[in-house]
Amino acid sequence: MTKFDEATQAIRVDESTYDVCLDPGYSIGGPLNGGYLMAVILRAVVDASPHEHPVSTTTQFLRSPRPGPAKVVVEQVKAGRTAAFTRARLVQDDVAQLEALVTTATLTAVEPLYAEEPGVAMPAVDECVRLPDPRPESGMTLNAQMEMRFDPPTIGWLNGAPTGRPEARAYFRMAEPQDPDPYVLALAVDALPPVVFSAGLRGWAPTVDLTWHLRALPAPGWLTLLGGGRLIADGWFDEEVEVWDSAGRLVAQSRQLARVGRG
User: Fold this and answer.
1) Per DSSP, what are the bridge partners of residue 95?
2) 7: three-class secondary structure by DSSP
3) What b/e sequence results for 75-101 when a residue is b if at least 16 CB atoms lie within 10 Å of its CB, and e otherwise?
4) Most-buried pick from 18, 95, 140, 174 (CB within 10 A)?
């Protein structure tokens, strides 16, 4: 069991309840990363499902849970031969923190009937750069859990030179050697800095709603994250992320709605 597996572990209490312990190592300056929280929920949902993989997940982030003990409560809505539908809540101190609707199925390694190429060509990994290590007092512990190498133009905001477009692109893998799986993908779809940083905005940008789809089981190696947005208006922005594996296959897609950064 890797550190990430342990940090997302869900222990069955009864047919609808799982005990979890939210790990402070996945903090982004205080709040816990949304992708990490989704991975915790998905551990419980898949354990309770007759199917192996979370192919579609929609999550509403009602509150910001703190590290420590919590529960995942699952409710099976419908289960069939090809898919099952489950409602799940992450509960802390008897208060719902996140609500999710998850579709599970069992994917196989079949060749796609149709597949597009990535819309953006990434430089080689060794031509991409790391973000500076955060100061210890920042509480940005998430950075230590993963390795990311960024396409240089998309982090121009670090030096006061944002591109003016909502975008972020990077290679991603866990800091501890681990082949990517659906739970790692749940983290990956929310691992990029908010795309509004590249548009010239800053601050914590809380996610309100995030939907992501597992499209294929990823091959070992680096994942490629391609993030962008279409509209920033009235204090809101959208963020879309594609995740491509080392074999050049689209393995995950996400779209989230978030508040423009503050603080």
Assistant:
1) 92
2) helix
3) ebeeeeeebbbbebbbbbeeeebbbbb
4) 18
All structural domains of the chain, each given as residue ranges with its CATH number in brackets, are 3-107+123-259 (2.40.160.210)
Q: Which of 88, 123, 91, 117 has the alpha carbon at shortest distance from 102? A: 88
C-beta separation of 59 from 34 below 8 A: yes
Residues 6+ apart with CB under 8 A from 43: 8, 9, 10, 18, 20, 72, 183
Torsion, Cα of 246, 143, 179, 150 (10° steps): 10
- 78, 84 Cβ separation under 8 angstroms: yes
pLDDT at residue number 138: 87
pLDDT recorded at residue 263: 56
Neighbours of 233 (CB within 10 A): 8
pTM score, whole prediction: 0.97
> Which residues are registered as beta bridge partners of 259?
236
Q: How many CB atoms lie within 10 A of CB 31?
A: 19
pLDDT digit string, tens, across residues 157-170:
999 999 999 999 99
What are the residue ranges in the chain where pLDDT is below 50?
none
Helical (H) or strand (E) element with 173? strand 167-174
Collapsing DSSP to helix, strand or coil, 170 comes out as strand
Structure tokens at 33: 């990363």
Segment 70-92, tens digit of pLDDT: 999 999 999 999 999 999 999 99
Query: What count of other Cβ atoms lies within 10 Å of the Cβ of residue 107?
Result: 15
Rounded Cα–Cα distance for residues 188 and 183 (Å): 9
Q: Find how far residue 139's CA is from the centre of its chain.
A: 19
